[in-house]
Amino acid sequence: MILRELSMYKTLTKTQIFLLHPGREHKVAAILKALENQRRITVTDTTIEYIHKTDTDIGMIKAVWVLTDFIANTEYHTASEFPAKLSFFSDGKEYAVVYAETGKEALISR
Fold this sequence. Notes:
Layout: H1 2-9, E1 11-13, H2 14-19, H3 25-37, E2 41-43, E3 47-50, H4 58-70, E4 74-79, E5 84-90, E6 93-98, H5 106-109
Antiparallel strand pairs: 1-3, 2-3, 4-5, 5-6
């Protein structure tokens, strides 16, 4: 599941990856260490990056913060296509998270 999330979202903060798997901190840490040893991910002081990523997508990192607020009741989540960054189902409802940079808020009205 962790590798799936990193391949979809490319870069996550360490806090986010632990929030996506509440109550499994020790297992998550062990899996991250194994993936790092296999050179499938890169771990920095603050982030975990999928090794095949392109540039860091700040909008995706911010969208995942929204997901972490709902993770306790989330049945499924995945990366989405423009304009949404990601989609998820929580409490029987579908959500799409759209990131609009400062100065590009007109995107929302379209």
